[in-house]
Specification:
With 509 residues, this protein is an alpha+beta fold. The protein is 48% helix and 14% strand. α1 runs parallel beside α5 and α7 runs antiparallel to α8. The two termini are 18 Å apart. Residues 153-168 have a biased composition (Low complexity).
Length: 509
């Protein structure tokens, strides 16, 4: 039987794509903030450090007054003044914005009008928390000083750097940090900030940070001219989360870049060792070892593709090209899984060991592999594109349950077939083959137990996805549950099985 062809064309295409990721690197992860009910607060995990910060920029058309706060989630307990308690749910009800009625009720002072209420316990100073709060005025027809990302965006030509490097508003790091330090000192005295340039918030500590902006209507501006309809001017802006790394990936996804590069290196090293064994025992190779060689090559390409995909996302963000790239990666991932389980199944059924042909059973094996391939593509795309916090449980089940059924079908069929093949070899007293199949049985049994533990842990974790603090608690390790855990399990299982069936001088036995 001839060995499978090496998929060279996809490999060359991936080499071209990785070169694109090195052409440019975007500065940070940016999210819009809008005057809508579910878009007034933007949160993201952040890897803190000297170079990390949050910048909030509003469009020139935005106007009016905003109550704005930036904070790390651990300090959310200090936001708002507890007013009443819901006796049915035993949940505290809070007033978060200092309005005229809040001042009249004694929840805040008149000098805090238009700001978020910060209720600190006795003896805890304000500078010991991460909370930054102010009333932002957005005057119409204003001119906003550009940030460093728009340094060359000057219709009158490129700017000439001033003699004093600390005087320019488009420099960052120490100079812009000092500039915004002075702004924060000014805010602490009157609580009002006239917005003229991006609001800068240094992030020294790793955590889950939020930016909230709520329109605040002053008494004298509370009604339209010649009408009795209350209103507030709308706003539109963006929040830029600059982590310690450069790029457009969210902090929760960035570890995947290093993870998949490490997996690529590991699989590449294993592929070299496998190629050396195949070369040494070229004349003793079995058909199953040709297929294993093709799978080893596919694994190297898949890990390389995953690494390049996240590098591309980090450099260019989401778009048409990244969606196409995601589909390619999903196809590789689903193909690898389907091919792996299909090969295990036909081996467990005793193909070329107990029987020469599987007959109509082979069609059932191929149908199950095809279904697993399709559901694997849907799952791979879904875990990247869906937002777990806002997606309904039904939609999540559509992506997860079909793959779980085909996976369970493969595992149960493989284990049942293995038991039958082992019993057959034991009856015929073929001890050498029996030992290999028994080891394969124990490897798969351990994998099934680990998968069961994984599904229990994942179910417990995702069951609380609608909780208010779910993202804050899970942003650091969520990628591990979705990608890392199963990838490492597959690596351990595949290397164990491949090494068990490795090319050797005893292949013909």
């Amino acid at each position: 039987m001839a060995p499978p062809r090496w998929p060279l064309r996809p490999f060359l295409s991936l080499l071209f794509l990785i070169s694109l990721t090195l052409i440019q690197s975007s500065i940070a992860y940016e999210v819009p903030i809008l005057d809508t009910e579910y878009s007034r607060q933007i949160c993201s995990g952040m890897w803190g450090g000297p170079s990390a910060y949050i910048n909030v920029t509003f469009d020139a058309a935005s106007q009016g007054n905003l109550a704005m706060v930036i904070y790390e989630w651990a300090d959310v307990q200090y936001l708002g003044k507890e007013t009443t308690t819901n006796s049915d749910e035993d949940l505290p009800q809070k007033t978060y914005i200092c309005t005229s009625s809040a001042v009249a009720s004694g929840y805040c002072a008149s000098k805090q009008l238009g700001q978020f209420i910060v209720d600190l316990p006795t003896g805890k100073p304000a500078n010991s928390t991460s909370i930054w709060s102010a009333r932002i005025t957005l005057p119409a027809n204003r001119t906003v000083s550009p940030s460093s990302s728009s340094f060359w965006n000057n219709p009158e030509g490129n700017p000439t750097p001033p003699n004093n490097t600390g005087a320019t508003p488009w420099r960052r790091n120490a100079n812009i940090f000092a500039l915004h330090e002075r702004q924060l000192t000014k805010i602490s005295s009157n609580g009002i900030l006239d917005y003229t340039q991006p609001i800068h918030y240094p992030v020294d500590k790793t955590g889950f940070y939020c930016v909230a902006a709520v329109p605040f209507t002053l008494e004298e501006n509370s009604r339209r001219a010649q009408t009795d309809v209350p209103y507030h001017p709308s706003y539109k802006g963006s929040v830029l989360f600059k982590n310690t790394f450069d790029g457009q990936l969210a902090a929760t996804d960035y570890p995947k870049v290093h993870f998949y590069f490490s997996m690529f290196v590991i699989y590449a090293g294993f592929a070299l060792a496998w190629a050396w064994l195949c070369y040494r025992h070229m004349h003793e190779l079995l058909p199953i070892q040709y297929y294993l060689s093709g799978l080893v090559g596919l694994l190297v390409i898949e890990m390389f593709a995953n690494w390049v995909y996240y590098r591309y996302l980090n450099a260019h963000g989401k778009g048409t090209a990244s969606t196409i790239f995601l589909i390619v990666v999903a196809i590789l991932d689903a193909g690898r899984n389907s091919m792996s389980f299909f090969m295990l199944l036909v081996v467990a059924l005793g193909l070329s060991v107990v029987r020469e042909s599987l007959g109509r059973t082979m069609l059932k094996c191929q149908a199950l592999a095809g279904a697993h391939f399709v559901f694997g593509i849907l799952y791979a795309i879904g875990i990247v594109e869906l937002q777990l916090e806002s997606t309904s449980a039904l939609i999540l089940l559509i992506f997860i349950i079909p793959l779980a059924f085909t996976l369970s079908g493969f595992l149960l069929w493989i284990m049942h077939s293995l038991n039958a093949t082992i019993a057959h070899l034991r009856a015929r007293k073929q001890r050498y083959k029996l030992k290999m199949f028994e080891r394969l049985y124990y490897i798969l049994l351990l994998a099934v137990l680990v998968i069961l533990i994984f599904f229990v842990v994942s179910t417990m974790s995702f069951s609380g996805r609608l909780a208010e603090d779910y993202s804050a608690r899970t942003w650091r390790y969520r990628w591990w549950l979705l990608d890392g855990y199963l990838s490492l399990l597959y690596l351990a299982g595949f290397v164990s099985i491949a090494w068990l069936w490795r090319p050797s001088a005893n292949n013909r036995r």
